[in-house]
Amino acid sequence: MITENCRQFLPAFLAAILAATPLHSHGEEVRKKGLQVSGLVDTQLSFNDGEESWLQRGPGKFRYDESDSGDLQLNQLALGLRYSFNLESHIKIAAHYYPDPDSSVELTEAYWQHRSMNSKSWRSRYRIGAFHPEFSLENRGKFWTSPYTLNSSFINTWIGEEIRTIGAEGKWTWSGRDSKGTQHRVSFTGALFGFNDPMGAMISWRGWAGHDRQTGINGTLPARELPILEPQPGGSELSPDFEPFMEIDDRPGYYLAATWELPRTLEVQAVFYDNLADDELLEDGQYGWRTWFYQIGAKWQLPGDFTLLSQVLRGNTIMNVDVVDNDFESAYLMLVKTHGRHRLAARWEYSEVIDLDDTDIDYNDEEGDAWTLAYSYLLPKNWKFSIEGTRRYSNQKSRIYFSEPTRMTEKQLLLSVRYYY
Question: What is this structure's pTM?
C-alpha cells in the first residue's frame, strides 16, 4: 500500500540528503549554497488546575495536567536542516522530540522548495514533499511556533495535529501599486495532497484542544476509551490510536487559498480545504473521514505597535456514511502589543462541534471557550522567556460515558525558557 511505501521512503529520503550534503561554515556562502542547521530547546514549568490530559486518554484539553504541576519539563526539542542549492531552491527537513505521551522523535516536515521571479510583478513558489500549509496567522515562528503565545489557538492546534500537506503545492504572487501609489500584494495557492484520510477523528472524538504539540508524519494520537471504539457485534474494530497522515483510498485531496496584503499594514486570507476521503473505507483500524472546511482570517498592524489577529474556521466531517457526522467551527481574536524586546498578547477564542448523526454510542456535541494572556521577553543571544495563563471552559456530552460532569473549567499557568539556534 502507499502508506507503507511512504514510511519506507521518508527515512531513506532523509538519509540520502544527509549523505549527499557538504557542511559549510556560517556566512554569506551558506545562505547561497550549502547546509544550515537550526534548533529549538524548550523547557517549561507548568501549574495546572484541571482534568487528566487527553494525551493520557483523559477529558482534559491541555497537554499537561495536575500530575505535572510544579515539575520542570523538557517541553520539546526541534532540529532543522536546510540545504540550499542556490538562492531559489532548497530542501528542508524538521524533526521534533516530545517526551509525552511516549518519548519519540517525529519527522514534522521534509520537502523541496523552488522560487522564481517570472516578471517584475509576478513570482512563483513550488513545494513538493511534506510541509505545513500556510493557513496559520499565528504560527509563523521557527519550527511552526507562535511568536505570541506558548499554546496555539484551537484552530492552529488542530492544524498542527491533523493537517499536513504531503503532496505538491504551487503559489503565485502579484505585487504592484494602485493609482495612489499604495503597494498591494495578491497571492493564489493550490495544492494536491494524499496521506490525510483519517483527519477529523480527533476533532470528533476528543474535541477542540489548545497546546503546542505538532504531530509527526509518522505520529499517532490517543483517544479516550469511547463506546464506539469498543468491538461491536458484526462490526469492524477501530483503533484507539489515530494515524492522521495515512492513505486509505488512493485518491488525492486539494486546497485553494487566496491572500491580499497591504505590506506592513493588513493581510486578509481565505482558504478552502477538502481531503475528498472515502468515508466507507477501513484499513488497519483507521477509517477514512471525509473532511472539508473553509477559513477566513485577517492580521492588522495597528498604530502604537499593536497587532490584531483573527481566524474563523467552519467545516464538516463524516465517517462511515453517517455513523459520525459532525459540523465544527472555531474562531479567535488576539490583540498583541510589542515594545522593544517585550511582547504582550491577549486572546479570546470559541469552539463548537455539532453532532448531526443519531449514533447513540457516539455523542460528539461540544462547545467551549478560552481566555489566554501571555507575556514574552526576547533575551540576548537567541533566548526567550515567556509566561502564560489560560482559562479553558468546555461542555462535552461524551463525558457522560465516564460518569463525569459534562461541564469543566481548567486553568493553566506556564513558564517557559526557549533557546533557538
Answer: 0.91
Cell for 265?
A: 499594514
Task: Tell me which residue range forms the domain holding 355.
Answer: 2-420
What is the DSSP track for 265-314? TEEEEEEEEE----TT-EETTEE-EEEEEEEEEEEEEETTTEEEEEEEEE
3-state class (DSSP) for residue 41: strand
pLDDT digits (tens), the chain, 421 positions: 444 444 444 444 444 444 444 444 333 344 568 999 999 999 999 999 999 999 999 999 999 999 999 999 999 999 999 999 999 999 999 999 999 888 889 999 999 999 998 888 999 999 999 999 999 999 999 999 999 999 999 999 999 999 999 999 999 999 998 888 889 999 999 999 999 999 999 999 999 999 999 999 999 999 999 999 988 776 678 899 999 999 999 999 999 999 999 999 999 999 999 999 999 999 999 999 999 999 999 999 999 999 999 999 999 999 998 899 999 999 999 999 999 999 999 999 999 999 999 999 999 999 999 999 999 999 999 999 999 999 999 999 999 999 999 999 999 999 999 999 9
* Residue 251, number of CB atoms within 10 A of its CB: 13
List alpha helices for 154-227, DSSP H.
154-162, 201-205
CATH code, domain with 369: 2.40.160.10
Q: How many domains does the chain have?
A: 1
What's the grid cell of residue 255?
Answer: 486546497
Residue that the C-alpha cell 502507499 belongs to: 2
